[in-house]
Amino acid sequence: MRLVDSHCHLDDPKFDQDREQVIERARAAGVERMMAIGTGNGPPDLEVAVRQADRYPFMYATIGVHPHDASKAAPETFLRLRDLAPHPKVLAVGEIGLDYHYDFSPREVQRDVFAQQLEIAAEAGLPVVIHTREAWDDTLAILRQNWHSGGIMHCFTGDEEQARQALDLGFHLSFGGVLTFPKAEAVRQAARITPDDRLLVETDCPYLAPVPHRGKRNEPAFVVESVKRLAEVRGRAPEDLAELTTGNFEQLCLRGKPGNS
Ligand SMILES: [Zn+2]
Fold first, then answer.
1. Which of 102-116, 137-151, 186-200 is predicted least confidently?
2. Architecture of the domain made up of 3-254
3. Which among 142, 160, 197, 245 counts the fewest CB atoms within 10 Å?
């Protein structure tokens, strides 16, 4: 199986003891590419994922300020993001968006930092990776106003109606461990109605490990569990879903990048 983990936090301290083995296990499990998310602990360090990507040919990066860290963003943060955007391994701006569950940064600041990063992504011609929690309506409103070219709804946990709204805006829906949770029938329904060419998978590791690893540290090799569940939900073979989601990632994120068709 050819797999992609479209969302991993390999800089997390939970991987400090065995990061190399984790990456090797992923490769052995068929994970051809991994997209490391560059939000880390927030500004001023905006390069946590670029550093990972520079070390391995199969590793890619995003850059961005997480809504949790929005209040750490300063004018030089946005200048630095603009500098980093053309890096050949940077495939997207993210994860950016709104988080009204934790409210670690004031909501007006979150909205402003989100909008500014959409502008940077648009200038750079990069897709965006969206994080949204208990802020669906505001997220959609900002996207409708500031964004016209799709991207990834990361760790999609919405229902069918929300899936349709995101799809209408041109987004891909990325399904992670939550898809495998017993109570997540609404999420599985969203996965059922998503067109073939808009499906992606991810782990969001080290968080949200899928069944049968639930409660443990998540890692990129476990992305296969989301693929299997997606296959079951859609009545297809896991190999088909692996191929499909890998192809979708390449199409969305690697088009026009050096060394890729
Ligand atoms: Zn994440």
1. 137-151
2. Alpha-Beta Barrel (3.20)
3. 197
